[in-house]
Amino acid sequence: MMSSQIRVVLFALSALWLLPEIAFAKHAAITRHYKFDIKMKNVTRLCQSKSIVTVNGQFPGPRIIAREGDRLVIKVVNHVQFNVTLHWHGIRQLRSGWADGPAYITQCPIQTGQSYVYNFTVTGQRGTLFWHAHISWLRVTLYGPIVILPKRHVSYPFLQPFKEVPIIFGEWWKADTETLISQALQTGAAPNISDAYTINGLPGPSYNCSAKDTFKLNVKPGKTYLLRLINAALNDELFFSVANHTLTVVEADAVYVKPFKTQIVLISPGQTTNVLLRAKSKAPGTTFAMSARPYSSGPAAFDNTTTTGILEYEKSPSSASNSNSNNKNKKLPLLQAVLPKFNDSSFTMKFNKKIRSLANAKFPANVPTKVDRRFFFTVGLGTLPCPKNQTCQGPNNTKLAASVNNVSFVQPNTAILQAHFFNKAKGVFTTDFPANPLIKFNYTGTPPSNIMVNNGTKVVALPFNTRVELVMQDTSIIGAESHPLHLHGFNFFVVGRGLGNFNPKKDPAKFNLVDPAERNTVGVPSGGWVAIRFLADNPGVWFMHCHLEVHTSWGLKMVWVVNDGKGRKQKLPPPPSDLPKC
Q1: How far apart, in whole angstroms, are the C-alpha atoms of residue 375 and residue 367?
Q2: Where are the alpha helices (DSSP H) in 355-477?
Q3: What is the pTM of this model?
Q4: Rg for the chain, CA atoms, rounded
Q5: Residues near 444 by Cβ (< 8 Å), separated by ≥ 6?
Q6: Residue 421 — pLDDT band, cuts 50, 70, 90?
Q7: Distances (CA, A) of 407 to 83, 371, 381, 433, 436
Q8: Helix, strand, or coil here: 509?
Q9: Which residues sit opposite 121 in a β-bridge?
């Protein structure tokens, strides 16, 4: 009797002892819980205080950390007067479109006093992404990093860094941005430009009374640092450089890339870039500026200022004790970073061409080689007529607008995903979004005389697993400009880009189908075009829009509806019970 009991106990113990082994063998995924309280906070920048919308009173917001395969459960409680939604930018959201976050696209907003639990699994992704508000202009202060580590015991395909540092670029207005955009949309004028850029919420020494508000990075000589760069600015693409240091780009939009060295990184709103920085072997007698300033290719006014952080070397104890005590408080000189001219489009074109997938056995580039449906979208600006009995401040008494294939998207007052899921599209959206421009013209040449856009809530419906090719063409209407386009729910492959008008006869022959960049946000070149391919393997409703917030507000956005497939794993599950109501 006793021996059988002992056997049972020993078996139970051995099973417990084996459990971690089994768990590790499967790289056990875990569920990570976060609580996000949306609350107002008084913050002072540029000598002025203002009340801003934050998560948990933090600015920038809290960092989300997970491993590939983990489930994230994030409870968002809204304590402010604004409607709120959050988007987990770049997360694929496979069959979890209810958690994607864009207001009136996948959900109604979380109203004051209400809450919603965002519940999703990080599948087949690792790297740097970020979360931000996805309603009106609230993302100006509602943003924070998402760090997805590889599965346990899986290393990076590059040198293991000594330390990892998120660097998130933002944009700061002294004025209230919600008032700013609502007034601009009423008058039809462009909203006022920002007053500063920030690094991790801090503007840095080039701005008025901001020397104390400077991000500092202390490094040890000879060590390698992984900088996780995130552009969370509202309306500006940015150049970034660290004075007298070379950066090695190893990842873009949470996809590993063939490493390449550069002095300068171009990063558009919505994009993330991981770079390795190797500290010099001996601590130099100087500090180094880490600076970002805008790349602006269009005719519009922009905030032409520079945000700066400071890279400082730690002194070794011996050199610190050797330096005489008078020098202890001596301020080291700051070496400035060298950045391109604000309109250096040739640098941006060259830089973007360097970003290529690893495309190896471990990290393949699964580019669709065959295409089921081809689309050609013009993206750019235009105008809308001024309402009766009102004067407007756009060109010739019109309102400024933006469109895709001349359709300026009108946000519905209920969520498109719900309407689609419950077959109640009538009165919410139509599926007649044009696959090509209805009127052809010389897109990058002299603009047509009529630059009015049409309004509509139109979508493209795709059968499950459609292989899509999309060419996006900038136009010169009002002015050619670079547009960072972001697609929700998918990564896509950037198979080609060029200047001028896309030539469907000649350009496809030059497409890179071997190792193209795989991204979630791509810049349509100013006065040029970009070609992308993706597999529509994620059922749901997926927003695609310019990540320059002012252009999104003006209507440069559209929606892809991917219908369910036949299999159980190819269908979108029903919504969670706490999905907000409109």
Answers
A1: 17
A2: 416-421
A3: 0.94
A4: 25
A5: 473, 474, 475, 476, 480, 499, 500, 501, 527, 528
A6: very high
A7: 26, 25, 11, 8, 11
A8: helix
A9: 71
